[in-house]
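S.,

As promised, the nicotinamide-adenine-dinucleotide run. Input:
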Amino acid sequence: MGDATASTMTIGGESRTAPGTFGVVNPATGEVHAQAPDCSREQLDEAFDVASKAYIDWKTDESARREALANAANVMFGAAGELAPILTREQGKPLARATEEVLGAGVWLEYFAALEVPREIIQDDASAFVEVIRRPLGVVAAITPWNFPLILASWKIAPALLAGNTMVIKPSPFTPLATLKMVELLNTVLPAGVLNAVSGGNDLGKWMTSHPVPRKVSFTGSVATGKHVAASAAPDLKRVTLELGGNDPAIILDDADVGTIAQRLYDAAFANNGQVCSAIKRVYVPESLHDDVVDALSGLASAAKVGDGMEPGTELGPINNAPQFERVKELVADALGSGAVAATGGRPVDGPGYFFEPTILTGVSEGTRIVDEEQFGPALPIVTYRDVDDVVARANATTFGLSGSVWSGDADRGAEVASRLECGTAWVNAHLILGPSQPFGGFKWSGVGVENGPWGLAGFTDIQVQHRSR
Ligand code: NAD
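Predicted complex:
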């Protein structure tokens, strides 16, 4: 079952094995299908050391960086055939979605290759010329989760490198392989040491955040780990960007046309099998629309083709890993045990792999774990409400604040309600629409800072004022 070619890390432009390896499971089978290098402490030291040395030249020439990033984008555009199957086998997503993810990483690199690092003149008169300049920070430690390993890596790599930083990146131990290969391919167009990739378990992440070399930690993952990362970075005053979990509400107003919005709601809840930080995780419906919404979403969920992502026609793959599979099973069982009804689904699929039936739950409300917590899987609770002020308060009554949406036949009315949501992105008649120019981040425990656009780029810089007296 093992891959013919062993996966390798990239340190200083060179392919490197590690003293040990760890198994990577294919979630469609539940079996270990490949081995990944288990980076040693000495190798991590070396990666940070070569990144520090590469920083000396890399920070000096913005146009050279822009050109290198444009070349990196082209590498990604040509790499879908190689990277997408690796991603599907370790992550589970259908091959077509994995292909989109590879190309999406190219789009992000292309966007940042064209972005200017801003310089702003704030005074130009007889007494002084004063400019606000963005300076790179140094070496960045990047840590990514298992749901979108490549696209989320590109959200960090592209702006960090454009700003003049160098990087050591660590993917999740559940999905190391596609990222290692991506970094290997990008190293064909980047100077040695600018972008390094290491793989290992959670301890490797801890070593990175407490290491003296990196000046910034860019982290995407769970709230619990994000708090550890912040604590670990604090004694050294490392800059941190934290993109953490969400429990996104979708509020349907009483004037919404269910037939028009059902597919969009379903797509935003079940994309990537529900394993998206900003997926719809709870739907609030007025009682008058409850049955129509449940029928429409159940129809779409029950028709979805669930299977191995390598099989043509698969729409939803497995849940990525055993702990997450157990968590989704537990949250659905807990809801059903407290009086919820599965309008469709509700059970794991018989057989090997971490497959779970796409599930629509009714008869649930706050106080049930699947409404209050982030399920991060293919199970969606539908919750009723009577009053708009009340539902806004309920949507906001959480420590999460990543994103949310309001659905209405009147976009202005929808926007008014959306403006009352306490979250980083508030959509109207849409959800989960993201792009490289659009800043993305969370309120409250959903994060610190933003990624993407000029605002994300700024997060990889410190401000320097240059004041020339006249
Ligand atoms: P996780 O927090 O378990 O792991 C994320 C990464 O952190 C992995 O690479 C892991 O090895 C590493 N890690 C674990 N412990 C660490 C430690 N103590 N110090 C440093 N690194 C450590 O998250 P996950 O289960 O891989 O991902 C799912 C979570 O990520 C969900 O909560 C989801 O909402 C969130 N997420 C957020 C965004 C966003 O942009 N806001 C995007 C995708 C996923």
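DSSP finds 15 helices and 22 strands in the chain. The CA atoms of residues 59 and 264 lie 43 Å apart.

- D.
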